[in-house]
Request: fold
Amino acid sequence: MKKQAIIVGLDGGTFTLIDEFIKEGELPFFAYLKENGVFSRMRSVDQQTRVPISPTIWTSLATGKRAEKHNIKSFFNLQQDIKSARLFEIFNHYGYTVGNFGWELTWPPEDYGAFNIPCNMARDNSTIPSKASPVQEMRKRSKKKGLNIISNASLFLRLFNLGVGINSLLKTSMDVLRKGDKRTRQFNNLINGSSVNFQVFRHLYKEFKPDIAFYFIPITDSGAHYFWKYYDEKNFPDIDAEKRKKYGDFLRKIYIEADRQLKKIFEMNEDALLFVISDHGMQPIMEGSFETISLRAKKFLEIAQIENKVELYHVGLNCVINVKEKSGIDSKFLYNFFKSIKINTLNKQFFEIVEMDNTGRIFLKVLQKDKGDYDNADFDSLEVRIGGNVCKFTELVELNDLERSADHDEWGIFMHYSKECKKKGKLDDSEIYDFLPTLLSAMDLPSAEDFDGKSLIVTDSGGLKNIPTYDFLVKHTPAEKESDDSYVKDELKRLGYMKDE
Ligand SMILES: [Zn+2]
Reply:
């Protein structure tokens, strides 16, 4: 009989927290997996870039290869830049259907024989099947203004038809989220959003019964970034008692929600091989809060008078700008225009990064505070010169206090359970490149000689002959030439992962 597999991506999942919460008796299903399956710390740092960048890591997990082979090196890469076959194409090649919910770099969605809900960097709401698009719509709307059940009645109805319960819809509605302070709202938002996603995934899984399914849980990453310090008294002794009492449980509850979803996923198909993987781990950082500056895109395009000529989308703090067809402007011209925009009062460039790639896409980011460029200037007094116009700095930007108390580290997780897996317990440390070879061997399919990893488990198919490569399956037209990666290097230096040359 054909085997089936379900892969759960636990963003930023770390044994540091899992083991702690298991000890407290809070994660029964994770405990079950550790006891009855195999697990390993999975090292995520890419050997070349030495920094955990999600699109790079997820593409390594999907291809079994390092970044220099698969070609995804930055947040700005697109699906068509990938030069190696991913698990989607490989399983399709052997006649397996694949359902995806949230794998990085899956926009625009391609048809792998079941459903495909693109990652959270998707630039529009397209999904396969298209009736699933409300889940993307919800994600975008709730980020901006929250959701009101009355004004979003049609969206709620469509989510209901995708299997989302009334209770979840009510909880997701703005009226409930408005209660409480910023941290509490953030927490409710994460939990409720994740629960809606999960219900849609389960609905699609039952409808399509894919041979291979992937489901992404992002809240373990955001939850750790925001709430670690309230939970961890040892590393953060200065948090005041009232806050600790109020928020101290949030991170734990996020893992409990992940545990609950995992158990339900397992119960959906107990014969399927279950994999739980993360793209990196998390660790506490002591620097405390840091403030970032993001562009108010709509206002900026309006003042620059290019709102009808370009499309702009955010990737975190960074913006990507595409010149629309027949707009009559040249991207080279635009690139120089962005470079010429100055913060008058400081006589500094408004955009700290302005890069253009060989397809004419422009990447930019507002000058940040961390290198001391603002020199403690009063933001209200700053002015920006855009061409012939002068406007207030605060009109163009938004200040965000991220108040992060944890950041990514290189040790992610790998967990695997199947009825037939004889081995149990802890395996040697592994690497992200090992995931695809492991998945293939567990499914009794051959590995490829150009993989950078090896299978972590021994199966009956151990004698299968490797094939040289799966890359003949790559459908996308590869980029014409290597894109300039100085932007990435710049980012790495900023993040402290790379020293100035
Ligand atoms: Zn993160």
DSSP finds 18 helices and 21 strands in the chain. The first helix runs from residue 15 to 23. Residues 12, 221, 225, 408 surround zinc ion (CB under 6 Å). The two ends are 56 Å apart (CA to CA).
